[in-house]
Design brief:
About 40% of the residues lie in helices and about 20% in strands. The protein is α/β, with parallel strands linked by helices. The protein is globular.
Length: about 700
């Protein structure tokens, strides 16, 4: 029967963009959850807004490019680009309506009930509050503003991507009554939230309301007819002809500037905007009606993240999440190299500190026996201690080779700065490979020791970014395995220009044969199931949209393999299809930390295999990026990965389950333990650190007690 099924049937697949919108709906569901502390709800609503911005600048922009180019090829769900665009537009309008419904009807009243009021219209200010707002405008805002009038000598100005602006219609005093247009950008260098002195709790007003209240002071010879905020989103997807670019660095710098005047793909305006003003803005920016969003509230809800950071409201935040705990195997005063030689080390961030990774690079930079450091960097923090350590290593005479991925989306500018800085310090900097993004996370330290050269390797599922390592859940792995060390050397030789080796020991790389490796592992489980032997797959990742992988999973499921998928975001696979995916469950966990680790489990006829990777099951990861899959072979470390997977599979608080109709639903808690996996990981990390600390305490003090006796 299974042989007759067409596993490629497009009705068995979900469109990638619509699946992403479902993910953002799950983030929004956290903001709508009345069981959550109020400020945590604000944070999640802010995240939905920033997520949507990036989605439009990249994914919707890409669809528009396809439509404009007359591209009609259907996706895995059988939809043309124009059909996808229409469906995305409809779903996004619904999502935005729910965002502002949540903000206006739920969050604003709750804030007021907690003595924090956001004044939504400047007309609502009292006389005293108005005087403060006017004084604040004169002293702090007016000197920064650049009002832009439009007339025969002054063309319509460049409206910058993602900037918040006020558009105004006005008439010249003692003129003929002809309407003229002007605009002023709300300066991003000033705080958008302004606190107003008040005797009744705390009051805040948005900066654009203060500017709107005082806009007549910018155009003294005019009468203001109407003023309304508007905001645009531009196509920010870089198009780089790498084959023709003599200098990739210069080409990317040039393309970055174009982001400010790419095609307008979305226009947000205040609900109730004057129709004459809207018509003028729309025509000047060439925005179709379907790409206009009339917003019932303040534009750009990302300001809520600033609100979350306000002091004095700790009682409205979640305090169950612990700070990163020490890694028991790597005490602060320990030599990292000695500890790695004692045995492989697995770290679970952010429950365990990222500090040992930084210390690894720092110790390597100072250690006279270290000969070389090689590392890939995809995204790093603004003031990166890792960059500083690499600079120091080069200054200390080490051979330092760093691949800085200039094409890391929205981090291109940051990475260009770091690349130049590293080069200046004497590091050998590679700017990625033509046509590929280097997304793998690997560091190799070559050290001279008594028995000869030893290679120390760090592999991870997340970036070398000490800031996001406090927010993203990832797995990091230290080893000095000879075989992995050989593979790591081969990786860097390949990246710097040499041909790859004929065979690899332990690592699997994309784009060369990682996809085949995954297909082989899934196929092996299918064969075991068909022969009645133990077969199971558990995969934790961020996204699943590769058709060949999904097809292989369907075939395995049809053969009887039990498959549990833990997928944070996009999932183009459908569950509950008779004879196809009845043995597959998909759950998404949206919690306090962003789920980012990629972990894979294959039952392998009762001899389980565990892997971690930098790659998701997406065509871009498997075919157009340099990615690494690495095995975790020590039993004790496998147990740690098993604990992670088992915990997420029994989460009843933050998990949502993919339903056969394509929707997601919270776990039915009836008869089940209330279990939050992320809280459990924090508690486990704390317990491990405490146990190690107590052991060290006994080791230090017990001998002394004997001596005293």
């Amino acid at each position: 029967m299974a042989q007759e099924i067409n596993f490629s049937d497009e009705t068995y697949y979900t469109n990638r963009e619509l699946s992403w919108l479902l993910f953002n709906e799950r983030v929004l569901s956290e903001a709508r959850d009345k069981q959550m502390p109020l400020f945590e709800r604000l944070k999640f609503l802010s995240i939905t807004a920033s997520n949507l911005d990036e989605f439009f600048m990249v994914r919707v922009a890409s669809l528009m490019d396809m439509v404009n180019a007359g591209y009609k090829k259907r996706d895995i769900a059988g939809m043309t680009p124009s059909e996808q665009l229409a469906a995305v537009n409809e779903k996004t309008h619904q999502l935005v309506d729910r965002q502002y419904n949540t903000y206006n009807r739920s969050l604003l009243p709750q804030l007021s009930a907690n003595d924090l009021r956001i004044i939504t219209h400047h007309e609502d200010l009292t006389k005293e509050e108005g005087a403060f707002a006017d004084s604040f405008f004169t002293e702090n805002v007016y000197p920064v503003l650049t009002p832009m009038a439009v007339d025969s000598s002054r063309p319509f100005p460049l409206i910058r991507n993602k900037s918040l602006n006020l558009g105004a219609l006005m008439t010249k005093k003692n003129g003929n009554g002809e309407l003229e247009f002007a605009t002023v950008q709300v300066p991003s260098v000033l705080d958008r939230l302004v606190e107003i002195p008040s005797g009744e709790g705390r009051k805040l007003i948005l900066l654009e309301e203060i500017i709107e209240r005082n806009i007549h002071k910018l155009f003294l010879n005019y009468d203001i007819v109407c003023t309304h905020p508007f905001r645009i989103m531009r196509n920010a997807d870089l198009t780089i002809e790498e084959e023709e670019a003599e200098d990739l660095l210069q080409e990317i710098e040039k393309q970055l500037k174009k982001r400010q005047w790419g095609q307008v793909i979305r226009l947000e305006v205040e609900e109730g905007i004057d129709s004459r003003l809207l018509k003028l803005i729309r025509e000047e920016l060439k925005v179709p009606k379907e790409d206009i969003f009339a917003i019932a509230g303040p534009l750009d809800l990302t300001f809520l993240m600033k609100l979350y950071g306000m002091e004095g409201f700790d009682h409205l935040k979640e305090h169950g999440y612990l700070p990163p705990q020490p890694v028991p195997e790597l005490p602060e005063d320990a030599n990292v190299f000695e500890k790695i030689r004692e045995g492989d080390i697995l770290m679970h961030h952010p429950y365990q500190s990222f500090e040992p990774v930084v210390r690894f690079i720092r110790q390597a930079a100072k250690d006279p026996d270290v000969l070389a450091i090689k590392q890939t960097l995809y995204r790093v923090s603004g003031n990166s201690p890792i960059i500083a350590a690499l600079e120091q290593a080069a200054e200390n005479g080490k051979q330092v080779s760093v691949l800085v991925e200039l094409k890391a989306r929205f981090d291109e500018e940051n990475n260009i700065v770091w690349a130049k800085k590293l080069e200046k310090a004497g590091c050998h900097v590679i700017y990625g490979l033509v046509g590929l993004k280097t997304h793998s996370k690997i560091t190799l330290v070559v050290r001279r020791e008594e028995n000869g050269i030893r290679r120390y390797v760090h592999l991870g599922t997340g970036n070398y970014n000490d800031s996001t390592a406090k927010l993203y859940t990832d797995v990091g792995f230290f080893t000095c395995s000879e075989m992995i060390g050989e593979d790591a050397t081969a990786v860097f030789n390949m990246l710097s220009g040499y041909s790859e080796p004929r065979s690899w020991n332990r690592l699997s790389l994309a784009p060369h044969w990682l996809k085949d490796r995954f297909l082989s592992l899934i196929g092996r489980e299918r064969e075991y199931a068909l022969s009645g032997r133990p077969a199971r797959i558990i995969a934790k990742l961020n996204a699943l949209c590769d058709k060949e992988i999904i097809e292989a999973l369907y075939q395995a499921s049809a053969a009887g393999v039990k498959i549990d998928l833990i997928i944070r975001g996009i999932c183009c696979l459908r569950t509950g299809i008779p004879g196809v995916s009845e043995n597959i469950t998909v759950r998404s966990i949206v919690g306090n930390f962003l789920e980012h680790a990629r972990i894979f489990y294959f039952e392998n006829d009762g001899k389980p295999e565990y892997y971690c990777a930098s790659a998701d099951w997406m065509p871009r990861n498997l075919e157009r990026r340099v990615e690494i899959l690495f095995p975790i072979e020590k039993a004790a470390l496998q147990e740690k990965l098993k604990f992670i997977l088992d915990s997420q599979l029994k989460d009843t608080v933050k998990a949502q389950i993919l339903q056969p109709d394509g929707s997601y639903a919270k776990v039915d808690k009836r008869g089940k333990e209330v279990f939050n996996a992320q809280l459990a990981f924090g508690a486990a990390a704390q317990a491990a650190a405490k146990e190690k600390n107590e052991m060290m305490h006994k080791r230090v003090f017990i001998p002394k007690m004997h001596q005293d006796e």
